[in-house]
Queue: 4 jobs
Job 1
Amino acid sequence: MSLIKKRIMAPGPTEVPPTVLAAAGQPILHHRTPQYRAIFAEVCEKIKVVFQTKQTVLTLAAGGTGGMEALLTNLSEPGETVIVVSGGVFGERWAKIAEALGRKVAKIDVEWGKAVDPAQVEAALKANPEAVLVLGTLSETSTGVEHPIEAIAKVVAGSKACFGVDAISGLGACKLLMDEWKIDAVVAGTQKGLMMPPGLALIALSDKGWAKANSIKSGRFYWNLPTALKSMTAEKLPDTTYTPNVSLVMQLRESLNLIHAEGMEAIWQRHQLLAKAAREGAKALGLKLLAPDSPSCAVTAVWSPEGVEGTAVVKKLRDEWGISIVGGQGKLKTSIFRIGHLGYADRADVLMTLAALEVVLTQLGVKVPRGEGVKAAQGVFLEAAK
Ligand code: PMP
């Protein structure tokens, strides 16, 4: 058996730094002890910087989708109208959860690979003045699109509706200023920009969001956010109503230490740089980007070349190079592949992925100008270092 290192270049789960991995090996602390609660208090304070909020960030023992459901159950009632920006699998997920929970869904259908125009949100609010919630996605992982969250937030802030953002793959990679942009709810997961294993959902609400959450009458128990907030604030040290994911919280303390050491501005810049290098590298190989006009800085989606299924590229990179990128989702399942460059990712990761991609595409019969992808990415890095 040959020794092939495993490397993740997927838009989540992402690689986990050694100190964060090691933190999982610590003995379990009982969650009601002052020792654990002191660690949790540190996490609760440090996570606010990532959300760019003064609000309490709640930690839920759930994957990202659980956080999305929690947001919906706390910011809307059954029968109420929810406006959903849908331009990919994860926008579509908002609609599916909302429908499953008996909300009326007014969907803004956006072409996959394009960002929503804030004017479309304005029109949807006009057509549905009774809407209580608008739902969007910061980084639409399935298409590699970054939506104009700040501009949408401005539109929604002028209405009675709250604005909820799925920042599951975007937070800690793409710029998001929750308080300054007046976003009412942000949900994130740990397995992306936060450089952690999957398993925690994080959610924060604005004052407008909390007012709505406090008025909800129906259908919540585990996802009762006002109850969770009470546990957080009842005593000097924060607490959770139910048993938390103790090991993940200890790991989160480590990842937040790394995030604080780098600083949010530097983190956003690093992700922009890696994304630009990935895009320029792909283009130099003659590949077409799915989202050239509004690309995400967390993930780059590329059309698979004529006659080659994206899944074949993914398989060869994984089996022969140990590099895990991902194929498409939903209707783009075989026609694209996606390279993640978020969280614990650096310039060498992008260069390595492009270099291996050149070999794999060549072997699959694609005429790629070998060396040009790496060269273009090097150019981006050289320019940035000036
Ligand atoms: N939203 C986005 C934008 C995502 O990228 C993902 C995960 N790929 C989810 C939601 C769902 O998160 P989870 O798989 O942790 O439930």
Note: The chain is about 45% helix and 15% strand.
Job 2
Amino acid sequence: MQENLIKIKNDFLSKVEKIQNAEELNSVRVEFLGKNGVLTDAMKLIKTLPNEEKKQYGQDVNVVKNLLEEEVSKKEKFLEEKKLNEEINNAKIVDLTTPNSQEIGSLHPVTITEHKLIEIFQSMGFAVEDGNEIETEFNNFEAVNVPKNHPARDMQDTYYLDNGQVLKTHTSARQNYIMKKYGAPLKVVFPGRCFRNEELDAGHENTFFQCEGMMIDKNINVSNLIYFMKTMLSSVFGKEVKVRLRPGFFPFVEPGFELDCSCPYCEGKGCSVCKQGGWIELCPCGMIHEKVLEMGGIDPNVYQGFAFGLGLSRLAMMNYNINDIRILNSGNLKELSQTKIN
Ligand code: PHE
């Protein structure tokens, strides 16, 4: 083989070896095999050779040309595979069944409101307890002074399970357990999900949240209740609110109240949140009934206490300007994925 062809072959092989990508391969291909490429030029040389050398030279050029073309296609295949492997290795695994899977979630408005309440109560020295969602009939009713067949049971349309237990209709169902667990004195809040067989509309859901609280100690009276409620609600709304009590009937408190707070949005002047009334009904409460204390193992002659059942779902709706309670249990992310608290 002629020296010029050997040099072309060797030059080519050493360049191909260093190639990293398709662009580099293409420019080497053009350099050697293109119209004005090194090998193409070498082929043109054939014309200038004496006749007896032409045949051999032609054969040699073709051998080199085939070799170069074979090397180019081998390298091409190799680079393609390399690229594919890199793509596979670098691919992020995304769950395609999740909508907007790149988006970061946010806490539910009820959860944020609950966290805020817990923080406020903890700062006032309250312990925090969890509760069951399935309760015994005793805890839900008898233990809070609502005996079997008493008409007061009609206040809460209840889901009964086949085994006689109930989906708890109010967080008060945990009162008896907590009195027995802590004894007196105690300061405990216990938020939780409650269930009632409601006709559903913008203001009524069969599944909703409350935040119950109890304080039991010596010499506790209604003024302590008012003080705690006022301090807590002022803290929740981030401004001083007024509270007022109206009589309310609940078998487990005596006296019982509906506690209203002055509308924090319009300062009591009247707006859509307070339905122009200037007051918001937010928190049934009262002094814990003697019988309830007794059933909880606490002597009512020594200790007194107050209890309240704050409407947590209601509070979350106010904080987030949600005007239909059913949104809270829906998958409506537009309304629910709000992170700003008023
Ligand atoms: N458990 C009552 C309800 O759900 C609210 C309440 C709690 C009232 C504590 C008084 C004291 O309606």
Note: The chain has two domains: 2-90, 109-339.
Job 3
Amino acid sequence: MLKPQDGPTRELVSLDGLYAFAVDSSGVGVRERWQDAPLATPLEMAVPASYNDVFADPAIRSHVGRVWYQREVRVPRGWAGERIVLRFASVTHGAKVFVDSALVAEHQGGYTPFEADITSHVTAGETFRLTVAVSNELTQSTIPPGSIAEDAAGRRTQTYMHDFYNYAGIHRSVVLYSTPAVHVEDVTVVTGFDGDGTTATVDYAVVVAGEGADIHPVRVRVLDAEGTQVGAAEGISGTVAIPDVVRWQPGRGYLYRLVVEVLAHDGGSGAGAAAGGPAVHDSYTQTFGVRTVEVRGTDFLINGEPFYFTGFGMHEDHGTIGKGHSGAHMVNDFSLLEWIGANSFRTSHYPYAEEVMDYADRHGIVVIDETPAVGLNADFAGFFGTGAKKTYGPEFVNGETAAAHRQVIEELIARDKNHPSVVVWSIANEPQSSEEGARAYFEPLAALARELDPTRPVGFVNVMFDGPDKDTITDLFDVIMLNRYYGWYVNTGDLAAAEAALEAELRAWEAKLGKPIIMTEYGADTLAGFHSLYEAPWSEEYQADLLQMYHRVFDRVDAMAGEHVWNFADFATSNGIMRVDGNKKGAFTRDRRPKAAAFALRRRWTQNKTASQA
Ligand code: BDP
């Protein structure tokens, strides 16, 4: 799905800001049709943000069910005759969207965009009442999954098997935008190199939608970063060559633009006509980078050169705003990544805001892009206090879960396929992968990801309990991605034992599959300010020592292709006896102050740059 933009034929209005906000504590809003009238509430809520930590009210924070957002929107008066679209970049987890009393969109899945064509519901120059009912419920039919219990008094509680707080709300921007009725609906760009590698091939495919779309001629122009036209073609699909191409590289995010123009079929008026050229009916500009990604043996290659990932599994997580997108926080996080020498990160454990992906493209940051399929693992039942004994089956991960999982893979790839920063699709984090049923569940999902995007490696993140002797699915994927906690959850406080166990396991994976290994998580909870002379878990010294121990091992194992520390920063989790005010495995605190480990990582990552990172 394209990110909306303004341009010569399109306009865009931000609907971010304050909304009236009501908590549907008794679950009656849909039945009582709260969309039909102004919400009876004194509360207001900011968009974008999670609502949970904004109010000084525990009942709102832990509410399970729907909350309602409402505001008035004026349609710009110049939009008569245009197609008018309402677009949500993310509503976590479920949304019903009403324009006045009419239901115009429903969406499940908290981290991918959706939109509604509301042309027939609104009038240019007039206002409408926008109401959004947002559900934070996680069930067997959602990704991530969860379960809801209700006690005799009707009090509902939510449990889930993932280790981050279930923030909810309208987390990313809401926009109203216009396009002509016949419009560019989708653009796909795939790049490669020709001959000696100095010429790029840019394969493009455009979908034009709207009545009579097929009679409109389409042309594309490729502009370089300075805006100079370097190639062009006609038709809804084709190939453009760029001679003397500047590659997108890790650390150097050179971007081209593909300007897609749908021309008036009768040479009629429109943007561009005044300049003497053919009339442009609709125009959409898609940025792209020219680079290749390939797995060869145990090497992960970007532009044919071995790439070694350094960086973190991250979270969209901040005080007050929770998982809400904020430009200032985003730039700060990227600035810290640069300071520490990270060349990459994983969008653990859900797709991040589109602004984050665009920033990574521009700055040459490499991304492992993950779906929200986290917590598909009954082995965590003890940890999270939930009851399922078996993962795959009617009780837990069932056909409905699989359908939701397919949807999140489709929506992630549809959204992010044109980002050069994305080099791996991670279709799940730590699912149970040794139980009967795992292979039958994952084989079609891996195939789906490959079919939707044959150009990028596909992986999933393997959990510590399912090592090379037990795992039954890793051979279905292109890379081996491992989360390991030797020295933390096992061999706690004994780094010598941890070192031996870690090395033995990595060598077993190397021997079993001969594919690149990326350590997607390793780390230790650490209380900032706690120091110790001894190997004391939770101390800043222990965190730094543990990471350095892993690095010694990584440097001895040829198949290692990357290291992502868990986590970039401390983050909020659900309550539990294993967590003190959240997960403390950050190299930075939640408010982004460096722990001792951050300096140790910086030393390693700024000294060890490989040729492709330089
Ligand atoms: C892994 C999960 C991650 C957790 C981490 C931890 O992938 O989400 O936060 O362990 O325990 O199981 O810190």
Note: The radius of gyration is 25 Å.
Job 4
Amino acid sequence: MNPYRKDFPIFQGNDVIYFDNAATAQRPYQVMEAMREFNDSCNANPLRGLYEWSVLATERYEAARHTAAQFIGAKNDSEIIFTRNTTESLNLVAYSYGLSKLGEGDEIVISIMEHHSNILPWQMVSRNTGAKLVYLYPQQDGTFTDEELEEKITDRAKIVSIGHVSNVMGVTNPVRKIADLAHAHGAVMVVDGAQSTPHIPVNVEELGADFFAFSGHKLMGPMGIGVLYGRQELLEEMPPFLTGGEMIEYVTQYDATYAEVPAKFEAGTVNATGAVGLAEAIRYLEGVGFDTVTETEKRLTRRLMEGLRTIPEVTLYGSEDPDKHSGIVTFNIEGCHPHDVATVLDTEHIDIRAGHHCAQPLMKFLGAGSTARASLYFYNTESEVDRFVEAIGKVRHWLGY
Ligand code: 7TS
């Protein structure tokens, strides 16, 4: 039996197979306990009160910032901005850095594998500044050739924004190599870490990331809290994204000066409870250890892909190598719409994602209107994989073939 399952209240007393971990991960009781403890001992508005509860709330909030900074190898805690999620983090970079720095003749380079969160903000910047949006196209297995990278990332590039791990292909992109190219041409490197942070150790310095975004809920934290890491010098020269309370230094009737980073980017009352929960999720994940996470995912993914390969009507997307999937297996069953597959699996208490996975340009590129996706995490088990493969083998029959 998987030793971690007992920590997850949602798995107790049912036979649900949860294979939609790339959408959101489940939460161990330790995370909820940390949030309850904050609530019961010092819930007050952080960063402004002069009384004990508010001071304590501020301390917990800043300790969570420190935990997040350590987690991704940021040099300074002030390089960590709490946001709602990856989407908001990427929008912050687009609205603040993108709109103020880019213009006609500049280029923003992204890939066709991006989640919509790493496409739409750049479309907006492109529309508003006249900068051109340039796409990197991968090979069948999700990897980029050196020629593709070198041809697309040129002196015109001002921003290169790439997903660290694809939420559809599962492939880990060579961020360091892309960042070196971006920097050689004077561009900043933005990394969407939504799908990497739950699965692999991240060090923003080693990756060469100037900005790095991730979500708490995908690594077992609560929904509504995310992180934007930004290099200190860049954050200091950027204009605020949202304005209002707590992000100011002085305000007069018609003007204002802004607080130092990170406060400059955290307008309004912050999500301290969420930050505390995220910090506990990080501690929990580090307690499990990335070696265990990776080893379990690889073992389960291999079993799952080998199982699906025995079913002739199943098409698998991405690399042939299960070790290159980060636990994400995207597939289709001939003649079956993925929505029907997911719906019929639900009747068997199996949860997967079906549709375009917020990556419509990628679906078009793959020539698939939509796909089904199973995404695993370290708390899943071999018997779940076996039950899943058995069910997939019956889907066509259930759907009337
Ligand atoms: N970037 C990637 C690579 C993602 O996979 C997701 C969410 C996001 C950004 C957005 O994260 P959010 O927390 O701001 O919503 N991906 C998915 C998914 O694959 N299924 O549901 C959500």
Note: The chain has two domains: 30-286, 289-398.
